[in-house]
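Possible regression after last week's pipeline update?

I re-ran a chain I had predicted before the update to compare outputs. Posting the input and the new output here so someone can diff against the archived version. Not blocking, just want to make sure nothing changed silently.
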Amino acid sequence: MARTFVLPDLGEGLVEAEIRAILVHEGDVVKEDSPLLEVETDKAQVEIPSPFAGRVEKIHVHPGQTVKVGEPLVSFADGGGAAAPARSAPAAVVPAPQAAVMPRADGGPVSAAPSTRRLARELGVELQAVHGTGSGGRITDDDVRASAGKSPGVSKPPDAPAAPARAAAPAGPAQPLAAVGLEPPPLPKFEQWGPVERQPLSHLRRTIAERMALSAALIPHVTHFDKADVTDLNAIVTRSFEAAKQRGITLTLTSFILKAAALALHEHPQFNASLDAVAGELILKRYCHLGIAVATDRGLIVPVIHDVDTKPVMDIARELAALAQRVRDGKAALDDLRGGTFTVTNIGALGGTGAIPIINYPEVAILAVARGREEPVVRGGQIVARMMLPITLTFDHRVADGADGARFAQAIIRRLEAPETLFVEW
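New output (post-update):
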């Protein structure tokens, strides 16, 4: 009897995904946890592993197709590996793959995220032989690297060949955006003035458009502008850059900004929250997982660094570089993209003097950082050149007032202007 694997519940309200690439063929024999498909969700492009071993009997989807949670992806013939229960009803779904459990040789469970299991495959590490140091015995990336004899933060040997490029999936037929708020009036016939070309939106671009419209329609945005004197912090980054690079760390201002924001959120928890308008409650999150906007050729994606408030700056810098690279390569796992409580977007590398970002719903605030520039500043009665960093804090006016936003921005600025405070562990 064939076993059918359906699109799993991806969590956080994700109800569909677009098939980007199929990594197996009918008749292939696959191992449990081997790459099966690449899909693009509302969050980003992710790789879905096979939930069990066996022979691929039928592939139900094709690149460019949009699939709902619970719809069939691949059917496996009987035999080979641990059987999973058959899934015929669309409502029956497998758990989200962020904490898939694999059997240990001694019969106990092995818990590891898809990104960790992928790293283990790249380094040739058997997860059953790795001792997990994470919560509940979960195996972390550093556990895998330690088992392979690699230093933390190095995901693959320097001479490892790059993954072969895959052909991009077709965009598929155009689909209308979900209606939010007022219905737009009909567009004029642009063809009457000259030739036009219509291009269907990609799944990710359509999702970005819908979410931005949702955020703008639901949230009354207000923005506070300020500047931080990061002269001393910039000197630390410049002075430490080469030493950090030798340890496999790309040191930038962004990791310090993330740390400063996380510590400031402890003082101002209403910005580390979500609003439940139906219940009339503010949901204060007692964890600090920060999203960082990453520009890709497919669109803007916001991966998440967990527990930024408790991590040393150097660990944040290492994790940030690896995370951004996975996102740009289209190799981010679901764990990389979920659970954010507050977002930072840094446009400094692209120039500009400032930006007013749209809040990443259902969060209630977002911090934008522009390019730091030397400016004349009066200090001690003298005009001196100082490195000034423009920041803008956009927040939900339903949960905080202008004075609250100004105080929160100042809490971030205080830490950026006294960089020694960013090395003190919470």
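Follow-up from reviewer: compared with the archived run. The CA atoms of residues 45 and 330 lie 5 Å apart. Marking as no regression found.
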